[in-house]
Write a structure and sequence with these properties.
Layout lengths: L5 H19 L16 E9 L9 E10 L2 E11 L8 H7 L3 H4 L5 H12 L4 E3 L2 H16 L7 E3 H11 L14 H7 L10 H19 L1
Parallel strand pairs: 1-4, 4-5
Antiparallel strand pairs: 1-2, 2-3
Helix pairs in contact: 6-8
Length: 217
């Protein structure tokens, strides 16, 4: 009797998990997010929020840009202002410069999420400290779908860590590495734009992702 390979079991587990998610999908118009991803395509995204608490704060802007191969498709981008259900604090305005009056005519959060999901399609998601942005997005998407964004996620700071770690002698690997955004961009020789703007941050993160893919290949 032939052995079942670990790869086959892993593939089967992914298929079962996908079927479970599709079964629990509350709105079938978004089934496309579970389709096979186009080869060498990604969406890099960034969100600005009213603060840094996933439980208490809300998204006020979203920036997303498609990547194809080694090209950042800046003409294929999505910029959304989202109207929050709570006031924009003075502290957060100092960071992202979006005042309450700037987002007063923003999209309803569920409308914004629908536009974002249609833009992303089934492409893997790329971001810098992406976990926070995904958690903020999923606060709304869970209400709509009964589950969160299912696409694979790629963390750029993890790629940068891997790149820097490879450069160290074997006996020094696994230690602390400066993962701050400005440090990463400067180390990679990439230009800095005004930070804390969703599109600018997406552009910079996308450039870093493309450069790191080349360096790690």
């Amino acid at each position: 009797m032939s052995q079942i390979s670990p790869g086959f079991i892993k593939k089967l587990s992914r298929a079962i998990w996908k079927e479970w998610l599709l079964f629990h999908l509350a709105d079938e118009q978004y089934k496309f997010m579970f389709d096979p991803a186009p080869e060498n395509e990604w969406v890099v995204l960034d969100c600005e929020t009213t603060g840094l608490s996933v439980s208490k704060d809300q998204i006020i802007s979203i920036g997303a840009i498609k990547i194809s191969g080694n090209t950042l498709l800046t003409s294929e981008r999505l910029e959304l202002l989202v109207k929050p259900e709570k006031k924009v604090s003075a502290e957060s305005v100092k960071i992202h410069r979006l005042r309450e009056l700037d987002v007063a005519n923003g999209l309803d959060p569920e409308v914004a999420m629908s536009k974002l999901m249609n833009f992303i399609g089934c492409r893997p998601l790329v971001g810098y400290y992406l976990e926070f942005d995904i958690a903020m997005l999923n606060k709304v998407i869970w209400r709509m779908l009964g589950l969160g964004l299912p696409q694979p996620k790629i963390e750029v700071s993890s790629l940068f860590y891997e790149y820097k770690n490879r450069q160290l002698p074997i006996n020094e690997r696994g230690g602390n590495i400066d993962l701050r955004f400005n440090t990463m961009m400067q180390d990679l020789g990439l230009p800095l734009r005004d930070a804390h703007d969703a599109i600018n941050d997406s552009v910079m993160t996308g450039m870093a992702f493309i450069k790191l893919r080349e360096l790690l290949s």
